[in-house]
Each structure stands twice: as structure tokens, then as C-alpha cells.
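# nightly structure sweep
# worker-07 picked up a monomer target from the shared queue
# config: single-sequence mode, recycle default, output format = C-alpha cells
# input follows
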Amino acid sequence: MTSWVEVSERRLHANYRLLVEAAGGDTAVLAVVKANAYGHGAGVCAPVLVKAGAEWLGVADAAEGVAVREALVRARAANGAANGVAHEDQPRLCHDIRILVMSGLLGEDAEAVLSHGLTPVVWEQQQMEWLAAAVVQSGGDVARLPVHLEIDTGMARQGVAPGEGLRALLHWLKRQPRLMLEGVMTHFASPEEVGSAQTLAQRERFEEAIAAVAEAGLRPAWVHAGSSSTVDNAADSMVGSTIDNRNAVGNLAWLRSLAAGVGARSMVRSGIALYGYCLPIEPEGCGVNANVRCGLQPVMSWKTRVIGLREVRAGDTVGYNAIFTAPRPMRLALLPVGYSDGVRRELSGSNARAGGWVMLKGQRAAIVGRVSMNLTVVDVTGIAGVAVGDEAVVLGDGVTADDHARLAHTIAYEIVCGVRAEARLV
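# output follows
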């Protein structure tokens, strides 16, 4: 094993509980575990989040949903064996946990949705026809399949827009005996922007859609919108409009009020914050929910081991294209990770520009030369006692995904999602 990820159960549990507290009221927090739990290992993280109290998990597609469901079943079995309790006495890790498939489906996915107890997000009649046909083919194992309808309020990615198309879809759905409209949802495009005009416009379009749902005589149990930034953007608890646009109210309070108006419960879908990160709230210095921002802790420690050591002379070059020349005699350590594992090439260190670093024996070891496909070289000249086999922290305490993102000119999402290493719980 060239590298591995250690996931802190304590920190992941604490981050989820912090978000639940910050969401407040009766607002549920759906824990997003798509993209292999943002690179942290969905099979490791999902059971921890369920134990922390998550009722809902979010995945991108049906294949991810199947994998997460199977991980919950395995965790339940392992927990039962460890405690001498029969599997059926531990339902919290199995089918009563809801798994929302958030990024659409094809006809071939419908059977997996039914057989693994997944809840699909839909926005086109064809998607619902596939699902209804699968319910019929199930032979009565499922009476009515719950679906969540996505409203496109301004992202222009997925969802049905408010208006005639939505009303026609609701009319069809109301007459469909095999499906049940359990939830209505949308996704904000700019939740990290304080007082965003785009968010306010999206809210108005979502209100229009919810009114159409009510007028159609449908009664969803859930109304949900927002992401980690919706919880983190404390300033939006002081700006914006209510459903009737007359009083100031923030996104979370607005969502609760909107849901309550149709007898539903509100929910937000949090992803990156579960794992210890948030996007900057803009403009800088405004709107940060200090309780969230200061309380979140990175969950991942990505580690590898030193596989080689060498001494180089002043004037020796290191790595591809000789972008680094040793200015003095140096001691270098070789690590068996590179851009094929998720170490961004932008972290390369040259004489003209300092690059990234790893942590060795609690100290920074700077990357020198180009990060290559499977190997990275770091400077350990000033770190005493480094030996082959020593652990190096690629991401973790002392070197965060935000650090990598800053050097790579991207966001923490891309850094953690790019990690390709086996995860284990610690």
C-alpha cells in the first residue's frame, strides 16, 4: 500500500452534530457521501454519519447508492457480531436510512433503485415512467415508490422549471398510482455570497413551484434546498425576503417557513462541511457563522511512507525539466505518491516558486522538483532522524486541503475528491 487515508470517527461525528445544531429548528441535515464521501471513503463514513444521527444520505447515482446501502448492511452485521446482537435488532444501519440519488438516473437504474431502497431525484416524465414500470415489475414488493422532484430555479443543470412544464408534470404525477411525491427540492447557485441577488431570485422561483405543488393537491413530506454554505452563511439570517417578500429572513428560516406552509419538514444537504471544510463567504470578512467555521475539523489524514533517501550536492537538479537546483548540499526523501494518486502537479517546488509540503516528524518537508505520476521528492535536510518507512502526512494536521487548493488555484472540494487511497477508520 503506497498511501492510505485515515478518517477520524470522532471529528466526523462532531462535524455532523455541529451542522445539525447550526441548521436549527426542525431542519434535518442530509449527509452527502457522493464522490466516495468526497474522497474520504463512503463505506467508512456512511455508517459513522448514521450513528451520529443522520436520517438521510446523499449520493450522485444509483451505483453509489447501492454501494452505500451495502456498506450500511455490512456495518450493521459487524456491529451485531461485536455486541452479540441479532442483525434484525439493529435497524439504524440498514433500510430505514434513506439514500437520496441526487444526479438523475437512466432506465437501467430503476431496478437497483427499488431493490436497494433508494430514493430518486426526478424532473422528467420519462424518468418517472421508468420507475413506475419497475414498481409494476417488482410484483407488489413496493406499493408506491417515493420520489423527490427537483425544481430548476437558476442552476440550469437539472430540474424542471416553474411554469407550464411543472404543472403538466404534477398533473401526470398526481394520476400515477405507482409513485408518491415525497419531496420537492432545489439547489442554490451562490449560497456563499452574502445577500446574493441570484439566491433571492431562486427563492422566489422555488416559492412559485411550491405553490404549484400545493395547488395540484400534492402534499410532500420534505422541502429541501441549500448546502454547507447555506448553513455557514450566517449573514443570510439577516437579509432577504420572506415568502411574501415583506420581512427580512434568512435562507434557513425562509426554508423552514416555506416547508411548514405546505405541511412539510425542511432539510439542507451538507457535503464538504462534514469533512471539515467550507467555501469562503463573500465578500471576505462578512457573514461567517463563527460557530460552524471555527468548530469544523478536517476529518482526513492522508498518509504515505518514505521509500528512499539520498544526498545531493549543490548544483544538482531534481526531477523533470530541472525546475529545482539544489542551492546547497541537501538530504531528500522519496514518497510513492504523485498526481495519479491526487497530489496536484501545481504543488511542485522550483527555485523560483515554493511549492507544497508534507509533514514528517511534525515538521514541514517542502516538495522540491516536479510532482510526477507516482513519486514526489521532499526536502528533509533540516529534519533529524528521517528514515525509510517513516510516515509522511500528505493531507492532515499541518497541511490541509485549503493549503493544497491555494497552491493549485482551486477549491478544497477538488483536492479531497481527487485523493485515491484506501480509507480506514481511526
